[in-house]
Amino acid sequence: QKEVEQDPGPLSVPEGAIVSLNCTYSNSAFQYFMWYRQYSRKGPELLMYTYSSGNKEDGRFTAQVDKSSKYISLFIRDSQPSDSATYLCAMSEGSGKSTFGDGTTLTVKP
Amino acid sequence: NAGVMQNPRHLVRRRGQEARLRCSPMKGHSHVYWYRQLPEEGLKFMVYLQKENIIDESGMPKERFSAEFPKEGPSILRIQQVVRGDSAAYFCASSPRDRGGTDTQYFGPGTRLTVL
Predict the structure, then answer these.
(1) Per the CB < 8 Å rule, is B42 touching A98?
(2) Main-chain phi, psi angles of B6, to 5 degrees
(3) Is-contact A99 A32, C-beta < 8 A?
(4) What is the pLDDT of residues A25-63, one digit of tens each?
(5) Residues 1 to 20 of B: which have CB under 8 A from any A CB?
(6) What angle do CA B3, B9, B10 make, to 5 degrees?
(7) Inter-chain contact A49–B101, Cβ cutoff 8 Å?
(8) DSSP secondary structure of B11-74
């Protein structure tokens, strides 16, 4: 069983929709939770970074962490075609190594 | 402020040859991480280095793979005697590892290795 499981998708939504991306994990030592966006044939770009449980908002993006359920989410409001990409969740114990989900590919249709 | 730089961006090798991948971290960053990404998969951790030290190589295959981050110059990931299964995108990330012990890693554009 993988340490990090990510909803595989793919997801296809109309422009303006609210998108929900989710990951679960099994390692209770994870303390840092990240979401990356990766465009095709590019490097991952850090979107959101959260320490421990709680919510964090940045513009149209909201990250939620529920450590009791070992569940994290990324919400995208008012989705745009430019949001079309693969989204990767990642987690770390704070030792340097990050463990990634396999990614969810999102397409936002105009 | 330049981001993480990797070269070459594309590398083609025949089976049995050596591949050398280079990574220059962001200015002021002294921690480097290497990850491998196979098609349709997430990134898999390989190795974490500081200047002149390997901190964690738990994700590195025991044979043929090595990494270094010398006092001067870029970090190098070396793959000896490449096989077709080594074909993947190799990403380097760097972080400042500030006092908070954060793991905010910034990724380079990757090197896509193709083994013929």
Answers:
(1) no
(2) -130, 140
(3) no
(4) 999 999 999 999 999 889 999 999 988 888 999 999 999
(5) 4
(6) 170
(7) no
(8) EEE-TT--EEEEEEPPTT--EEEEEEE-TTS-EEEEEEEETTEEEE-TTS-SSSEEEE--SSS-
CA distance A57 to A70: 20
Measure the CA–CA gap between B113 and B85, rounded to whole angstroms: 10
B9 CB neighbours in chain A (<8 A) are none
Q: Which residues does chain B have within 8 Å of residue A95's beta carbon, measured at their own beta carbons?
A: 56
Give the ranges where A34-74 is alpha helix by DSSP (H): none
Chain B residue with Cα closest to A49: B104
Residue A79 backbone phi and psi in degrees, to 5: -60, 145
**pLDDT at residue B86, rounded to an integer:** 95
